Each structure stands twice: as C-alpha cells, then as structure tokens.
Amino acid sequence: MKRITIAKGDGIGPEIMDAVLTVLAAADVNLSYDEIEIGEKAYLGGHSSGISPDSWDKIRKNKVLLKAPITTPQGGGYKSLNVTMRKALNLFANIRPCRSFHPYVETKHPKLDIVVIRENEEDLYAGIEHQQTPEVVQCLKLISRPGCEKIIRYAFEYAKTYNRKKVTCFTKDNIMKQTDGLFHKVFDEIAPEYPEIETQHMIIDIGTARLADTPEDFDVIVVPNLYGDIISDVVAQITGSVGLAGSANIGTGVAMFEAIHGSAPDIAGQGIANPSGLLQSAIVMLNHIGENTAAARIQNAWLKTLEEGLHTADIFSEGQSQQKLSTKAFTEAVIANLDQNPKVLQPVQPLVNSQIVLPSYQRRPQPRKDLLGVDVFVDWAGNNPEDLATRLRSIENDHLSLSMITNRGIKVWPNGFDETFCTDHWRCRFQTTAERPVSKAEILALLTRADEKGIDTIKTENLYAFDGRAAFSLGQGQ
Ligand code: NAD
C-alpha cells in the first residue's frame, strides 16, 4: 500500500479534501495517509513559512503530497508556502491539464484540451530584486541550461506518455536573446529526439492571442515560469471554469498535487464547494504513482456525473444542469457512477505506463571563457550623456575604453537622440581594444579610478565570450 501525505488546508479545503478521500476510498484505491497541518494555523502558530518542521519530514518521507488550498494571512509579511515548497523540494515542473466539458459547462471553446507545462523554479521568480538608484529597481531573470533541459524533456516525455501529438514552446526570444533564447535553443535541441511529436515555437504575445482565440490548435505547451503563470490561468479560464482544474508540481523526488483555486473563504463551511479541482489533481496524482486504472475509473465516473447535469452551485446553469448538489451529494453521485463511462464526453483509457523518468543532467565540457570588458552601471542625476561620457573617458586605459552608454537599454552615447528620456541609471560599456582579453585586475583598477573621480558605480556585469562567441546583448540601437 502506498502511503502519501495529505493537507486539508483552510477555508473549503477540509470539505473538498474529505470529498476526494471518500471517492478514493469508494474506488478501493490502495492508499494510506499521513496528515499534516499547513496554512493559516501554522502561520499564526509562529511558523512564518506556513508549515512546521515535522510536516516537511512527512512530505519528504512519503514523496507525494495531496494538498487542499490554504489561506495566506494578509499583511505580516508571510511568505507564500507554495513558492517555498516549489523551491525547497525542487518541484521544477508545474503541470496543468485543462479541458472543456461542452455542453455541460458553458465555454466559448468546446474543443479545448490543453496541458500547460510551466517551468517552476527559475526566471523572474528567483526573487532577486534590488533598488539601484533613486529612480530604478531591477529584477534578475535567471534561466539555466539544466533548468531548460529538465522542463523541456519533461514536456516531451509527458506528451509521449499521455499520447499527445504536439508540443508548442512559447518564448520572447526576439527580445530576450540570451535568456528566452536559451529556452528556445534547448527546445530545438531536444525536439528531434521525439520525431513522432509535432513541434512548434511561437513568440509568447501572438501565441497567447492565438491560444485565447483558437485553443483547439494547441496540445501540450511548454513555457518559462512567468509566461506559464499567466497562460495557465488564461487556459483554465477559457474552459469555462477555473474551479474544475487540478495541477501537479513535479520534482525529482517529491511531487505535490492541488486544485488551482484558492481556499474560497466566502463559501467555507456551507457544504456547497465543488471538489472537482482537487479530485482532478488526485487523478493526476494516481497516474503519477502508477494507479492508472483507478485514475481512469474515477475520471470516467466524474465525466458521467457532469454529463448527467449533476452540478455544484458554481457550475450550475438553468437549462443545462439537472440538479444543484451540495459537496456531499455531488461526491455520492460520482461514487454511484464508478464503473460507468460518459456517453457524450470522450471517456479516458487507463494509461499503460505513466512513469516519467528523466535522465540526470550531464554537464557539458567547459567552454573557453574570455573576458572582453565590463558593463559599469552608474547612478548619475545628470541629463546630457556627453557630460557622463567625458567623465568616463577619463578613467579609460590602453585596453579598456568606453564603447557605449545606454539608459534603460537604449543607446544614448555615442550618437543618441535628444528625444530619448533618461533616468538616473546608466549602463556604461567598457570593452577591450587590444587583441587579448582583459583581466579582472584591469576591471578592478577601472572601478578604483571611477571611485577616485567620484563616479557612483552601483554594479558591474562582466562581458564574456564563450568559445569565441560574444555572450551579451547589444544596446538597443547599437
Ligand atoms: P479563490 O479561488 O479562493 O476564490 C475565488 C472565487 O471562486 C470565490 O468566489 C470562491 O467562492 C470561488 N471558488 C473557488 N473555489 C471554489 C470551489 N471549489 N467551489 C466553488 N466555488 C469556488 O480565490 P481568492 O478568493 O482570491 O483567494 C482566497 C484565499 O485562497 C486567499 O487567502 C489566497 O491567498 C488563497 N489561495 C490559495 C491557493 C493555494 O493554496 N494553492 C491558490 C490561490 C489562492
């Protein structure tokens, strides 16, 4: 018997978790449970992360967590437990299957059937932010090769395992050539290993527009973290109800499964919440642990219940629905339909093998790395870039000379436009003029001279070439 960890959470959490556990028991699923307390009580009980240390132990021991939504108390600077869990447990992939249930749940997109696979740990969510000048703040966008390889390979393996035909990758690599460029490059590297799967790359803006317009053209979508956060909500919403989707957060060891909605405090305790989102995540969980027959059996019972018009209040509509059911009555209706298939909605077949195993990351041979210069970021409240350039040229040496100044990425020196608005945050690029790369000592000497001249340097970024290929962006207009 497989032992998993469950957390009933806050608000409607306990009601919908009880409903899901009742369905799992009725379906004779071979599971036993360790229960942990997370969320409001843990936060207010002094655990600022929303979870106690012994609960971590249970999650890590059992490796699978089925989690009901929690309430994050407002104010008080409490950290999001979800973000903490993703990072602490290396839950690198967020999987959100979304499907329309036309005509039983109203939607403008009756044929929608999409799985969004979102990178879960990197990108702007690394949370590295700084204020650098009185006028400018920054957030670092970090994308790594191991992070890209893991999520993109997972997306292809998922498509193969779940009999999906196409994987689409969204990035904005026409603008972010290094970060999104790496994600796209790795997608192009891995795609040929799966010749049976159709592949496609789209720029995220037009891709999202097409997704909202003709979602039936998409199948599996793999995306970096921030885009995934946004488009997974778009996709869930256009199925007709965000309340019906579940999600999985998959790591190399641990996996966590939850509904996508929150704790709905407005209806907590009334016995009217829809348990479907959590039930869907439990079905994804059953496939994850290899209980494929039970997963398909419960899914078909649930689809049949929807088809019969037996609906909870949130999806009830006059004309389409037959009865408005409480959480408990809906749960009983699903149980009564175990071993029945839907007639109109497509029934699901048990997966033959749902185990997705990724190869461990192989670091490539170290490339040659040459230092070609440095971007020095300067806090300066002046307006005329020529004045700043004059001061900066006084700190040049034989090997490092000023090649460009940008403001918010736009080249303002040499040959800038009077029309360009400038803040107090200037990127000043010094590049080697000699045949040989620069040394760190030369850069430190440059910074010392800047300090002596009263130039307020706020940070630097080294300019590298890897195997002779310059690996930094040009200024806009350069
Ligand atoms: P919410 O998803 O809880 O509720 C939005 C609306 O949808 C409410 O009207 C609610 O009644 C309804 N709703 C949600 N789930 C439902 C269900 N299963 N059945 C019927 N109706 C349902 O979003 P919110 O009100 O913005 O957030 C409430 C709390 O949930 C906040 O504390 C938030 O931080 C937390 N939250 C937690 C998670 C999580 O634990 N993963 C996710 C999102 C929000």
Walk me through what this model shows.
With 478 residues, the chain is α/β, with parallel strands linked by helices. It has two domains: 2-336, Isopropylmalate Dehydrogenase (3-Layer(aba) Sandwich), CATH 3.40.718; 369-470, 2-Layer Sandwich (Alpha-Beta Plaits), CATH 3.30.70.1570. Helix content is 32%, strand content 23%. It contains 13 helices and 20 strands. The strands form four sheets. A ten-stranded mixed beta sheet has the order 2-1-3-12-11-4-5-10-8-9, sandwiched between helices. β6 and β7 form a beta hairpin. α1 (13-26) packs across α9 (276-288). The mean pLDDT is 94. It binds nicotinamide-adenine-dinucleotide. Nicotinamide-adenine-dinucleotide (NAD) is lined by residues 12, 16, 69-72, 82, 243, 258, 261-267, 273-274, 277, 314.
Fold-level CATH name of the largest domain: Isopropylmalate Dehydrogenase
Helical stretch tally: 13
How would you characterize the largest beta sheet?
Answer: 10 strands, mixed
Low-confidence stretches: none
Cα shape: elongated
Give the names of the bound compounds.
Answer: nicotinamide-adenine-dinucleotide
Q: What is the average per-residue confidence, as pLDDT, rounded to a whole number?
A: 94
Proportion of beta-strand residues: 15-25%
Second-tier CATH architecture of the largest domain: 3-Layer(aba) Sandwich
- The CATH superfamily of the largest domain is identified as Isopropylmalate Dehydrogenase
Q: How far apart are the termini?
A: 63 Å
Strand element count: 20
Round the Cα radius of gyration to an integer and report it.
Answer: 27 Å
Strand adjacency order, main sheet: 2-1-3-12-11-4-5-10-8-9
CATH class of the largest domain, named Alpha Beta
Which structural class matches the secondary elements? alpha/beta
